[in-house]
C-alpha cells in the first residue's frame, strides 16, 4: 500500500467509527421521542447528529478526492480530469 491508500484506509475506519456512533445517537433520539422527553432536549441531540454527519461528510469527501487522484494517475488520466470529477461530485453534494 502506498501513502495515499493508507490514508484512505485510515479515513475509512474513522468514518465507519463515526457512523456507528451516529447510529447510536439516532437510536437515543428515538428513545427520547418514545419516552416523551422535552422537545428542546431532542432538538439538541438532533443538532449533534447533524454536526457529526457534517464532519463525516468532510472526511468522505477527502477520501474521495484522494481516491480520485490516485485512480486518475494509475489510469493515465490527468489531474484536471480528476479535479473535474471531484468538482462534479462536490457541487452535487452542495446542491442537495
CATH architecture: Up-down Bundle
**Under CATH, the topology is which?**
Methane Monooxygenase Hydroxylase, Chain G, domain 1
Largest sheet: none
Helix content: over 70%
Please report the first level of CATH classification, the CATH class: Mainly Alpha
> What low-confidence regions span 5 or more consecutive residues with pLDDT below 50?
none
* Annotation, overall tally of beta strands: 0
According to CATH, the homologous superfamily is Metal-sensitive repressor, helix protomer
Proportion of beta-strand residues: under 5%
End-to-end span in angstroms? 34 Å
- Rg measurement, Å: 18 Å
Structural notes for this entry:
With 96 residues, the chain is mostly helical. It has a single domain (3-95), classed as Methane Monooxygenase Hydroxylase, Chain G, domain 1 (Up-down Bundle), CATH 1.20.58. Helix content is 89%, strand content 0%. The protein contains three helices and no strands. Helix 1 (3-34) runs antiparallel to helix 2 (39-74) and helix 2 (39-74) packs antiparallel against helix 3. The chain starts with a helix and ends with a helix.
Amino acid at each position: 500500500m502506498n501513502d495515499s491508500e493508507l490514508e484512505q484506509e485510515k479515513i475509512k475506519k474513522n468514518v465507519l467509527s463515526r457512523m456507528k456512533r451516529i447510529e447510536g445517537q439516532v437510536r437515543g433520539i428515538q428513545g427520547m421521542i418514545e419516552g416523551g422527553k422535552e422537545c428542546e432536549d431532542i432538538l439538541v441531540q438532533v443538532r449533534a447528529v447533524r454536526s457529526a454527519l457534517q464532519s463525516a461528510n468532510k472526511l468522505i469527501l477527502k477520501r474521495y478526492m484522494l481516491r480520485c487522484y490516485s485512480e486518475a494517475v494509475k489510469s493515465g488520466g490527468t489531474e484536471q480530469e480528476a479535479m473535474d470529477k471531484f468538482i462534479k461530485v462536490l457541487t452535487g453534494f452542495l446542491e442537495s
